[in-house]
Specification:
By secondary structure, this protein is of the alpha+beta class. It has 6 helices and 12 strands. Strands 1, 2, 3, 4, 5, 6, 7, 8, 10 and 11 form a 10-stranded mixed sheet that branches.
Amino acid sequence: MFARAGFEAKPKEAPAAVPTAAAAAAAPAAEAKNACPPALKKAIDESYEKFIKNKEGDTTSEGEKWELVNQTDVAKIWRAKLPGQSVYRWRAEQTLYGPKSGIVAELFDFSKRAGPNGWDEKLKAGRIHKQYDDNYRVAIFSSNPVFGGVISSREFIEARVIKPEQPDGGYLVAGMGLDEKIWGPVLGDDFPKGDKSCTRALAFPGGGFCMSPVTPGTNPETPQEWKCQLVMATLLGGWIPTGTINAASAQVMTEAAVAQRDHMLKKFKQ
C-alpha cells in the first residue's frame, strides 16, 4: 500500500485494536454477499479513526508526541513512540504534482507501480486480492530486497478502506496489517496465500495516506500541487537490530518521497 520503513524482530505484544481470533470468529456473518465481514469492517474503521488523529496535530492517537527528525526541500519526517513496541510510528508530509486521478493511479495501481515494468524499484509485486462493498478491500504486496540484499523481500497483507471523495476534493486510504493467525480463519479464501520466499511483515492500525489540494476549490483533475501525508508503523520481521533500522528509517522515507516527487513531475509536468 505504502513505502515502508522500520524493522522489528518480534512484537512485544499484539498490535492495538486487533481482535483476538475468538472475538473475530464470534462476530456475526456479513449480511450482504459482498459485504466486508463485520469484525474486519469494525477493525478497519477503528484504524481509520486512529489515522485521522495521527495525521494532524502534535500527538499520535496513543497520545505520544511527534518529533520532527528530518526536513528537506522535499519532505518532512516525524516519529513518535509506539507504546509497548521498540519501533516508532512514522509520519511523512510532502507535495506531489499532478491530477488527482493520475496521482492515485500511479501510487495505488500495482500494475503501474510494481514489478519489472513499474516505476517504483522498491516494490516487487502487488494486487488487490478481495474487494468488498463500500470500498473495503484486502491487498497483498511485497518489497524488493534493500540495502544490497541485507534486508530480504518483505510481504504485507493489509485491509483498507478507500474514501475517494474528501470534502476538500482530496483522497484518503486507511488500513492495517492482517495477522494470518487471527484473520485467516475469519476470512477463509478472502485471506490471500502468501509468497513463501518473502518474510511476512505486519502494519499496526492507524496508518494511511491522504492528499489534499494545496489550493482549495480547484478542479481536482487539473494538474496541481497536492499536500500528501503518510502515517505508518510496521513490524517487518527478521533479526536486523531495531535500533539500526530506526536510525535509517527517516532517510529511507525521504528517499521514497524524492522518488515519488520525481516520478509525478516526469509524468504530469508539461
